[in-house]
Amino acid sequence: MARKPSPKQKATAKVKLDNPTLEGGKLVEAGGYGPSVIKTPAKALESQGYKEALREFGLTEELVSVALVDDIKAKPGKRVSELNLGADILGMRSNEKPEGRKPPVVAVQIIIHGRDNAEDRTNRKTVVSS
Predict the structure, then answer these.
(1) What residue spans define the domains of the chain?
(2) What is the pLDDT of residues 28-68, one digit of tens each?
(3) Which residue has better confidence, 70 or 43?
(4) Across the strands, what pairs with 44?
(5) Spatial contact of 56 and 16, defined as CB atoms under 8 Å apart
(6) What is the pTM of this model?
(7) Rounded Cα gap, residues 43 and 3, in angstroms
(8) Are 72 and 51 in contact (CB under 8 A)?
(9) At what angle do helices 48-56 and 7-18 cross, to 10 degrees?
(10) What is the phi-psi region of residue 58: left when phi exceeds 0, alpha when psi lies from -120 to 50, beta otherwise?
């Protein structure tokens, strides 16, 4: 059974619907929450009351999914912006970077005045080869 939303949860849901790109601390602040919740907004934004407030305003995962599918079928093409908006509103995206893709490691060799200079990593001395 869903929890009845508090006035702040309702206010925050209304702010989110009016400003879909607003998130985190700025979102809960605009909804009337104080400093402690602004510092850790996830607790409020992941609460059952907040999710119920979104549902009361008519925003459900089913509604977004059906509307996007209908829109994509009606106007085929790149629909990235519509999908991103729906995902943002429902909090379906993570702000974390996906694991697995790490920056490449690049080895660099420096040649100064025709000599190959390298740092000996074991004793931190410069080794000059000729």
Answers:
(1) 1-59
(2) 999 999 999 999 999 999 999 999 999 898 887 788 778 77
(3) 43
(4) none
(5) no
(6) 0.53
(7) 15
(8) no
(9) 60
(10) left
